[in-house]
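Final report, Chapter 2: Outcomes

The project's central promise was a pipeline that accepts a single protein chain and returns its three-dimensional structure in a standardized token representation, suitable for archiving and comparison. That pipeline is now operational. To close this chapter, we reproduce one record exactly as it appears in the project archive, with the input sequence first and the structure output second.
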Amino acid sequence: MNNKLIHEYLDMKTKIIFATGNANKMREIKEILGEEKYDIQSMKEAGVDCDIVEDGTTFEENSLIKARAVAKCVPEAIVLADDSGLEIDALNKEPGIYSARYMGEDTSYDIKNANLIDRLDGVEKDDRSARFVCAVSAVFPDGSEKAVRGTIEGYIGWEPMGANGFGYDPIFYLWDKDVSTASISPEEKNAISHRGKALRMIKEEIVKHENTSC
């Protein structure tokens, strides 16, 4: 396909800007939403640079804050944003909405994961329950908004396992498999993950919006 045809093809696709600069997230997002119909770009790829203050008290509020901020810069596109994190029941659902900033934004996840395991020292398996939460919000060019939530239940292991995931994946174990989400394939993870569930739900909302807008 020559360059002219490529540009014409991209112009036919629905443009989606995802409010993130995280390359790992973008890989999952493109795999789950599918690039056949959508031209999916990160903020950086779309040339969007804006300061976003995530001062919400829930995952949904923070995802909407991000989506609204980016939508002001690219009003012609559908803007998606997510806010996700890990809730550990024995730690009063910490780190929760502060998951990315837990122990400081520049602190490595190796250190964060080790700290959480240390804080659960002596806690039995049944009391190590946890969940990943992902809220995805959409702001459409007509100003309408939608927020959805996906979760996956599991428990915190006693040591990191696996190299396929990122963030807290190595310490988040699945009840039915007793392996971490960093130990399964990307395809398996996308099928059951909090982000996969939320992205499939928001994709349904995008399709509904497109159908009602026709």
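Archive annotation: The first helix runs from residue 3 to 12.
This record, like all others produced under the grant, will remain available to the consortium after the project formally closes.
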